[in-house]
């Protein structure tokens, strides 16, 4: 169920787009209306989620320290994994966001003959990195459809991505890498028993969705000829708020666009929000300077305490007998 | 109490996942894996709700009639008070990197001890009640109904987490299960569901100033015994003071160090060191506890117990505070105290009166870790140490969870060991420093009734220890945590006998050459020194 339902859902989405465009001719709905709505949901949803997180205060400074603290001057502190300054925190965060540093630490513990051993386990890190960077490159490449003239960095991304210079149209490595990475992320969920056990439908759904987006994109580029000029006309219409539906764009484009719309609309309600969340994580984005600089808890309130006076009142006699000084003789 | 099986049996761990999905697998209360509930009088004394006689094995837990409301309101409140909680409910992608990082999962194989699944126990309820997707799609969105069975499951599994933060080192988003466990425990307390072994020390600490419930004269009496022992061993009579106004330094350490083996040897170590330095310090019977079981209970309790330290420092008029070896105590002192009960403007930024070193890193909190203090002494050649007096020991060092992952005090203790001992060997790198494994007894799991789950959780540490025992002949496991000193004894006896457990300052004091001392033939615990055996 947790695996099949998301698959069925994605297949149903493809069918809906196919039937909607090819059967019912609702090109405007799928080409303009739904993308607009989806983007709006994404924007509002994403922002309001981040605002919600931001509103929740950070009462305590709780960095996870993964190295030597800054203490005595002759002891070398680990400025990145246990940062004591904002600069260190920034480097820690950059490494976390761009290189998935924590995931790079991953180990695999194995038990044999009553003994534990810890082996390197970098595949998840590698696949994760490959997936996210491919996705980013593809996203940047797609800006070609939403800009005129096309900015330099988009062209760079295209050139780099097509550096192998094979095929017509030029083959982009990221198309292959993203498929391989998503396939790996999916297969480990299915075949690693622990992973299968913890996986939810909402873990499989985005995988299927992204896979089908990638496949439909690849089909469009390399296999089914798509009216690329018409596509650009449509996408430019969307960003300039003068939407139009040019003739002769294949249904596969509408399927692709619909799936992308679904991804956008789904994003703010899903675990995909980890993209925004990683920046706010209090175990990573705070300096371990707790004893040097006081952290303020905005909701710190007084609690009922047991004062020294109450203590001495109860124990004065035994304290005096034991020769422990007291306030009131 | 249930007897644990033999180590060979316990180390055959079945990691096969159950046939039924976890939401449909009800919790089984296994013997030796859960805590006895809070006694009525303790619940009343601590001012916690719903005092009653009950047992987790009962069908009816006698929860308040509106328990669901209470719990959900409590959850809503905490979501808006803790960004960590809100965020960690939302952003997990279930990548599974944390799964085999938890000592309880490694040592027991129960899937709900994978940090990700432990957190899902809570997330599923969050989704059902606080997210649109969860409300609409239910199980498909990973949501489930809040029932009494969920409460029972929480009580079992959130008291099988030692808040050690090892999972948070590996999580790509820094999700810290300790935060989730803390929230779960606070929520359970709203319903009157808690563990007596944590709640009774809290009551004790409130009233008598320490978890053990030692009244002032008894506390002093215990210390006096240790003073006699020191004199017998060294020929030096020391004279510690209590509640002395005008002392320069207030010394606070876990009360277990004043009470039970092997912590008492560490306590003797501190006192011998301070005496030799001529340190102007005092101990307080009113705050005779550095530990803080409030950390395992809730933020209000933590603040209430911690309050005494600054209050007493102020009353006695000391300049700064020195803290002994303890794990969770230092999590509270380092990450919470100044925020909760500061600013301590009545104190001065700590300066070592012996070396003149300013402890810049503690300039706001005004509390220095004894390992920082001692490392500084050694570096400045202020101690005469004879490490050969520890030659009967082959030592390895257990990094305690909180000092490692919520502070980062890694080098100071190693520097001290290298100066106090000749034979020091590290355990494998994936089991020390920030990757260290919990002893299994943190966060209040050191009660007798938790023995089986604790030994399971102690397996990774035991395994690493057995490795250096075999390879280097390690016979002493040194640590800087009072809970460790209590828990690791049982762990060693079970997983790696006959390794002994010691605090760091026991080794320091063994090596410390004191003025006017007699020739030492035995160590602090009366054991013969190398070369003096008959």
Walk me through the structure.
- The complex is a heterodimer of chains A (329) and B (534).
- Chain A has 329 residues and is mainly α.
- Helices cover 58% and strands 4% of the residues of chain A.
- Chain A has one domain: Fumarate Reductase Cytochrome B subunit, CATH 1.20.950.
- In chain A, a hairpin with a 2-residue loop joins strand 1 and strand 2 (115-120).
- In chain A, helix 2 (27-55) packs parallel to helix 11 (251-266).
- The longest helix of chain A has 29 residues, at 27-55.
- Chain B has 534 residues and is mainly alpha-helical.
- Chain B folds into two domains: 7-194, no CATH class; 201-511, no CATH class.
- Chain B is 45% helix and 5% strand.
- Chain B has 22 helices and seven strands.
- In chain B, helix 14 crosses helix 15 and helix 20 crosses helix 21.
- The longest helix of chain B has 19 residues, at 216-234.
- The interface between A and B is large, with 102 and 123 residues.
Structural class by sheet pairing and helices of chain A? mainly alpha
Low-pLDDT stretches of chain A are: none
Q: Which geometry of chain B do the CA atoms define? A: globular
Count of domains of chain A: 1
Helix content of chain B: 40-55%
* Total number of strands of chain B: 7
Calculate the mean pLDDT score of chain A and round it: 95
In short:
The complex is a heterodimer of chains A (329) and B (534). Chain A is built from 13 helices and 2 strands. Chain A has 329 residues and is mainly alpha-helical.
